[in-house]
Amino acid sequence: MANSYLNRTLGTPTNNYKWTYSFWVKRGKLGVEEAIAGAYNNGQNKSIMLFRTDDQFEIMDLQSDSYVMQKKTTRKFRDTASWYHIVVTSDSSLGSPETKIYVNGTEETSFATTNEYSQNQANLWNSALANYIGSSDTSSRFLNGYICHMAFVDGSIVAPTSFGQTDSTSGIWKFKQPTGITWGNNGFHLKFENSGAMGTDSSGETNTFTANGNLKQTIDTPSNVYPTLNVPAQTEGNTQIDSANLTFHMTSDAGQRMYLSTIGADTGKWYFEAKLVAKGNTGGSVPYIGAYAYKDYTNTYVGAGSGVGYNINGNVYLLANDLGSSGTTYDNGDIIGCALDITNSKIYFHKNGTYINSGNPSSGSNGYDISTLTAKGTLGFAVSLYNNNGNWDVNYGAGLFGKTVITSAGSNGNGSLFEYDVPTGFYALNTQNLNTYG
């Protein structure tokens, strides 16, 4: 979140030459400089690990305005749907100092820039300086995304396999609870489990950080990934996605634009909600909320004939055909729920908890028939706007409407966090539920 970060001033290190950083990160915004962590003395003496504007990952240590260590990957980190596990280890006590970067358990070997410490070079990463997480200092490079299980080990090189492991069934790299680690004087492990104390250290070293700004807790984790709004490779310049990819708004007049969820399904029963914060300069059948076929989605433009949507004027459209008015319009501040039954080719919409057309997704009655859409294959949840100043906040069940935390218990026992109860038999669209009900 903008202007949000954690900070702590470190103490005397166990070993100023040797350390390990491990963290999970899910990106929200591409093409901008965003820091994951930093240590700061002044503008000429600072260390930062960050994503650059070219979406490459870099870690550096600047002393007396010169790089004493700088490594930048050639790999570009542009997946906004998944979590990356990144481990950085550094040992300048060696005859040939080494700073290594691992991504999802595999060492990076291709670098756009590589500059190692000299032997026994004291580094700023483990010095008694102000340290930041989610920014490079108090005022710049704020991370618009998610961080989970941020860990720092003072004085030891720890292998990535202490923090992650390959799933024996799927072959996917997954989280592993670190055990048996000697954390050192400045070591910490931030799990972000306590929403009221996000900087709590679980390492046993009591190196707790202070939370600043508008930090929000989410149940989107490496162990259970929730969707966000998709960021196409060529994002339209007149749209903006922020709040860790949970807010979509138009910034200039350019006609109709749409964003899809980063996760979709081709079977099962799924639910999500969106809040219309501002309808903007409405036109045609938008704003609308509904579902769209991935195979026909190439950018933010809405192509005709590939979706179903409930528009602000109360009409429902399917494959560009007007199915008629539901008699229920909506406006700024309203929360629209969407229950998508792909298995039975039906869709249901509610306005602030009341389903339109007396629909009852739990019993399967009065839903809109979308068999012509489900025939197109995998579907995702969609929100659309038209022209300037429109704004949707979405909630896929991870507990956030944009920057707003969900406080009600609208989960209906399925473990996700919505404003309104999930219909019986429907689920939040996350990786665990897809594995069980998809």
Features:
about 450 residues; mainly beta; nine-stranded mixed β-sheet; 2 helices; 33 strands; elongated
Question: What is the radius of gyration?
Answer: 23 Å
Distance between the termini: 32 Å
What portion of residues belong to β-strands?
Answer: 35-45%
The low-confidence runs, each spanning 5 or more residues with pLDDT under 50, are none
Helical proportion, percent range = under 10%
Average pLDDT, rounded to a whole number, is: 92
Can you count the beta strands? 33
> What is the makeup of the main sheet?
9 strands, mixed
Shape: elongated
Number of helices: 2
Structural class: mainly beta
Characterise the protein shown here.
There is one protein chain. The protein is mostly beta strands and 438 residues long. It is 3% helix and 40% strand. The strands form 6 sheets. Strands 17, 18, 20, 25, 26, 27, 28, 30 and 33 form a 9-stranded mixed beta sheet that branches. The chain has an 8-stranded antiparallel beta sheet with strand order 10-6-5-4-3-11-1-16, with no helix packed on it. It has a 6-stranded antiparallel beta sheet with strand order 9-8-7-2-12-15, with no helix packed on it. A hairpin with a 4-residue loop joins β17 (239-242) and β18. The model has no long low-confidence stretch (mean pLDDT 92).
